[in-house]
Write the C-alpha cells for this entry.
Amino acid sequence: ASSPDEEWPEAEKAEKLARGAALKWASGVFYRPEKLEGLGQYRSRETQRNSSIQSRLKSTVQSYLEGVGVGLEQLQSAAQEVQSVCQDLGAARWALLDSADRFQGLQQMRALMAEHVQLASVVQVLPQLFSVHEVFSHTLQLLRGQQLLEAHAELMMMEHLRDDILSQLHLRGLSSAQATVLSYFSGLQVLNESLAKQLWDIVGSSLRLVREDPVLFVTAVRIIEREEKIDDTLLLEATFLPPGRPKGWRQKFYHIVQETITGDHFHATRVDTEGPGLARHLAALQKDIVYELRVVKDLMVQCVPPHYNILSICTATYHQALSSHLQDILREDLDKQALFLLLEWALRVYHSPEMMAHPDLLPEVDVSALGPLMSPELVEQTERKYVVKVKASVLEWMQRTLEVEFKEWFREEEPEMDHQGFFQSALPIIVMQMLNENIQVASLITDSLQQKVYNMALEELEAFLGRLREALVQCGKEHQKDRTIPKYYVSYLLAMLNNNLALSSSVSSLHPDAARREVPTSLQAALDRMQKKACQLLLEELLLDLQPLCLQLPSHKWLSGSQLVSSMCEVIDKYAKDFSRVRKPIFTLLLTESELLVASQYLRALMQKKMVCKSKEERGQLCHRLLQDATQLRELFCGLGLDQSQQSLEAVFALRELICLKDPALLSLEVLGFITKYPDVSDEHISTLLDLRGDVSREVRHLVLEMMVQHPQVLPEGYRPIFSTILVPAPQLPFCLRKGKCA
C-alpha cells in the first residue's frame, strides 16, 4: 500500500509551506530574548486552537457523511420506483395495442359531431336567412325614401350575415357552397349600387346641400365613414376578405368632389377666347371660386371629419383645374388682348386679395405651397406669343402712320409749326406714344415682359426709321421728276429733320430703368442715317438751284463784274431762311454742309478748264474777282451764324494766292504750303490751277509736281475733305492725221 504522502503530494507540499511559514513567524516573534518568556503561553494557546479546529473538522466530516448516506438511500428508492413505472408502461402499451380497433369508431363519432355543430349553426341563422329577401325589399324602400342611415344599417346587417357564412365556409374549405351563398345574397349588389348612387348624387350637390340641407350631406359622410371603418377592420384581420371589399368610398368621395368642381366650371361649354368674352369668363371664374371656397371654409368643413382636409383638397382641385384650363385656352390662337388678360389674371389677379388672398379665405386657404398657376416655361412661352402679337400690331400701326405721313408731304400747304416756329408733324408723338403705352402695359405683368416689349419697340422703331428713309427717297424721286411736286418739298424735309430729332431725344425715355437710358448703337445709327438722308436731299435741292449759276464760272463776263455771286447769295439766303425752321443743332449742320457745298461747287467750276489767263492783267482780274466772291460768300455765311473758322471758303483764298503769285519760280514753295493745308488736293488739281494761271513753263510745272511726289500728304484726323470730291476733266488728246506725227 502506498503512503498518504504518495497518494496526496499536495498535502506534503502544503505541510512544508505551513512549516516554513510558522518557522518564519516564530523566528520573527522570538528573535528578542524578552519575548521567550511568553513561549509557554503561546504553546498552550496554539494547542487549544488546534484542538478546536480538529473538533470542527470532525463535526463537518460527520455531517457530510450523514448526507451521503441519506442520498444513497434516496437513489435506491428511486431506482425501485423507476423499475415499477417501466413495468406499468409496458402493461399500458400492450393494453393500447389491444384497443386500437375501438378508436376508429371514435373518429366516425367526431365527424358526426362536427356535422351536428354545423347543422346547429345553420339552424340558428335559418330565421335570418329566410328573412333576407324581405329585408332586401325593405331596405330598397328605405333607400327610395332617402332614409339612408336606416337603409345602411340593414345593409350592413345583411353583409355581416353573408360574410359570417362565407367565412365559416372558407375555414372549412367548402368553396362550392360559397357560390350558392353569393347567389342567394346577390341582391346586396343592387342595394350597394343604389345606395352608392344616392351618396354620390348627394356629394355632387354638396356645395348646395351644405347651405340648404346639411343633414343629408352629413348623413352621406357618416355612411362613408362607417364603410371606411369596416374596410380598415377587414384589411387588418387579413384572414378573409369578403366580395366587394374594400369599397374605398372615402376616395370615391374625394373623386366626386373633384369631378364636380372641374365639371361645373371647366368642362361645361367652350370658352370664348376673344378679348371681351375671355374677360367675362375669367371674371365669372374668379367670383364663383371665391364664393365656393367660402362655402367650403365656413360650412362644409363643419360637416366632415377634420382628417378629410376638405378645404385643402378643394383648394388644390381648383388650383390644378385652373392650371389645366389655362393651358387649354393657351393652345388656341389668341390675340394680344386675350394673352394679356391670361397673364395678368394668372400672375396678378389670382394671388391678389380679390381672389385667393381674399380676407374671407385667409389664413386657411394658402396656394403658395401648390406651385405657380402657370409654370415659368409656360409664362415665358406666353410672353413671347404676346410680344409677337404686339409686334404685329405695332408694325401695322406704324405702317398706317407712315402712309398718312407720306400723303401729307404732298399737301398744298406747309407742315404745322410748334410754338417756336419750327416745322413738325404728329409722327413722333404718335410713334412714341404707341411704343410707350405698350411698354407701360407690359410693366403691369412682369419685368421680363416689359423688357421683351422694350426690346421689340426699339427693333420696330429702327425698322420704321428705315422705311421712313425709303419713303423720303421715294419722295425725292418724285420731286426730281417734277420739282413742283411736292409743293412744299423743302418744308417737309425740314419737318422730318425736326421729327427725327424729337425721336432721338425721346428714345431714352422708353427704357424701364431710368439709370440705363442710353440709346442702342444700332438705333442711333438708324437715326443718323435718317438725318443724313434728309440733309442730303435738302443739299441736293440747294445744288439744283446753284448749278445753273456755277455753270457760268469762270467766264470773261464773270471777270468783268457780273452779279453771279450775288445771285448765289440770294439762293443761299433763301435756303438759310428755310433752314431756320429746324432746331439749332440741325440748322448749324445744314449751314455748315451748305457752305462746304458752295465752296466745293465754286472750286469745281474753276477747275473745269474753261478759262486760261492770257495776260498778267487777266490774272489780276481773276485774283480780284476771287477775292470779291470769296469775301462776299464768307460774309454771307458769317452773317448767317457760321464762324469763319468753320468755313471751307478759306480754300478759295488760298487758291487765289497761288494764282496771284507774281514770280512763277516761287510756285513750288507756295504749292507746298497749299498741299500742307489741304492734303486731299491732287497733282491733277494743282496742274489745273497752273493751267489757269497761263504763265507756268514746263520746267516749273515739272518741278512743282516733282515736289508734290517728294512730299506725300496724309489726311489728319478730323480733316474735312474738299478737293477729293472735285473731279478734274481728263485732258483732251491732240488731233492726229493718218500716217502723221502728233503735234
Observations:
- The two ends are 178 Å apart (CA to CA).
